[in-house]
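sorry for the late reply, my laptop died twice this morning and i had to redo everyting from scratch. anyway the thing you sent over, i finally got around to it. pasting the sequence first so we're on the same page, its 250 residues, then the predicted structure underneath. double check i copied it right bc i was rushing
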Amino acid sequence: MHDMLDYFSMDPWFRQFHQNLVTFSIMYAFNENFMLALSHDEVVHGKSNIIGKIPGDDWGKFASMRCLYGYMFTHPGKQTMFMGMEFGQWYEWNVWDDLQWELTQYDSHAKLRDYIRALNNLARQESALYTNDFDYSGFQWIDCSDTSGVISFMRRGADDSNEFLVVVCNFAPVVRSNYRIGVPESGFYQEILNSDATEFWGSGAGNLGGKNSDDIGYHNQPYSVELCLPMLSTLVLKLRRDPETETEAE
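ok and here's the structure:
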């Protein structure tokens, strides 16, 4: 929690120099069964709510929050958030005050709430995000060493399944066009979540629903896809196999 909050409290341009803050957790993620907590202790007593910790204008703050939550929900472990974080409350938590529900009349806050709903649905629907949550076999880095502010990894389902998701996080405040990452199988990789989608108050940059893989080995994988990474975003991709290939794999 402290590593994540320290990282997202930085000006987005400086994050590229501190990638270890977002990758170090995998070093110990499978030693115990972890809760990924964003705690009430961090949004009281002058510490500010999540949105107040992040520098930049309002659009940048919300984009960084969506990126943070996207990484949190695809990272191994079980997620816990404290009330008000799901719609971007501005005030610190106060036991004597109501939550600022009136903020949901504004698109920025209402669409952040919609994004959290989409993340919860994704976590429930995709077995790769929970069946091997506490085991090394459920996680694999694609690239954790890109100092431009990008990380990519795979989440894998049960050992007897061929289900996997590809996750790419761009923590930098610039769009990365023609960004290539390695993937283990050929086919069409559908973009099942894009934190920068307009429905979530994003800019709408992305990959028009997905990308076909290329027969170009990359990142120690036999195939690769060339993506457009929106600024301050989390993308989740899923391979769509044809029915015959799916049957053969099973």
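The first helix runs from residue 2 to 8.
thats about all i looked at so far, will dig more tmrw
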